[in-house]
Amino acid sequence: MDKKIVIVIIVILVIIVGSSVSFIFLISFSSKNYEVLSRVEFDMHDGEVDDFAYWLDNINKEAIRNSKYDLIIMDYSSDGAETGEFSSTDVNYMKSTGDSRKFLISYISIGEAEDYRFYWDETWDANHDGMPDGGAPGWLDIENPEWEGNYKVKFWMNEWQQLIFEYLDRIIEAGFDGIYMDIIDAYEYYQGTLPNADLRMIDFVGGISNYVKTHASGNFSIFVQNADNLLLNSTYLGYIDGIGREDLFYDDNMPTDDSWRFEGISNLNIAINDNKIVLITDYPQSAALKYDFYKNCITNGFLGYAANRNLDTLKEVDFYHAT
Description:
By secondary structure, this protein is α/β, with parallel strands linked by helices. It has 2 domains: about 1-35; about 35-110 and about 155-305, TIM Barrel (Alpha-Beta Barrel), CATH 3.20.20. About 35% of the residues lie in helices and about 20% in strands. The chain has helices at about 5-15, 20-25, 60-65, 90-95, 160-175, 185-190, 195-215, 235-240, 260-275, 285-300, and strands at about 40-45, 45-50, 50-55, 70-75, 105-110, 110-115, 140-145, 150-155, 180, 220-225, 240-245, 250, 255, 275-280, 305. It is globular and about 60 Å long.
């Protein structure tokens, strides 16, 4: 293509999307000119981690077993339900690659109830209107309007926490290497009505951390997802081994706001400085955006994974192949 035409296209795109330096960088070079990316590495118990993947739906044991990813965040069940729970034999099989040490970290939502989990009773919302029925437990709240089948919970209530401990028992028994706790930011929903909602979530995470370190044999890692502002609390920081963050550099295919990035990076640096592992999952889809995402992660000392939003496949990452 004529260089003058390319320049005109770039100028037009800049006018459309604004003066994002990263965007200009992305569209100004050919895909053949991507430089080789370096690798970020973290120590993790008896191994090293320099890449990770995130896979929740339609999990295939053979694909995980054959993968070269050092760390994989996955569901403890092939389909999320009790009937699909992975046994210890399954987990050991997925780890047995003959390659370097592979860590399998089990996803668990502690801030919302999911209507396909073992603990769910259909009578709690029999008419599926998103409102708990009369016989529902006191900890159950309304359905998340943005995520069908997920219900907000009063996470500070003992009955809900006991269910989570039972959930943890299943994960530990299966032989996973740790947990990846989601919906930590559930406390934000209750901040207007619950005094110290953030501190109650910190206490909950602390209780979980103490529970698994007491009940799990060997090394067991505690990861949290999002709510990185809680890292400002040193007590909270002491409860975890690492943190995952979504949508830091890209909101799907759009670069995130500079102030959003700066705040997130500043918070995550607290974890880095305390020798915690930082995992970033964003959802850009084009090759150029993925490249920029990985470059941003590496520049900041984070591990990145460019996923699809459904988290229903194990991707071979462009520019940053699993080793």
